Amino acid sequence: MPTKQSDLTNDDYTVKDQNYSTYKNKIDTIEGKVDNIITAGGEPNVLESVKVNNAALTITDKAVNLLVQ
Fold it and tell me: What is this structure's pTM?
């Protein structure tokens, strides 16, 4: 553990453990995948289709109304 600022070896003055580059690469990969999905028109947690008895319903807006009796 560094005891003074000059012991730090990075520009943001934080201590990075031995797994930092692995974590950073994984985060960068995930960010890239999310960006690609958004660029392709995808949105997280968006209902794309509704089926009743395996038959797709036509959705004209992003609302689903289920009547329970």
Answer: 0.41
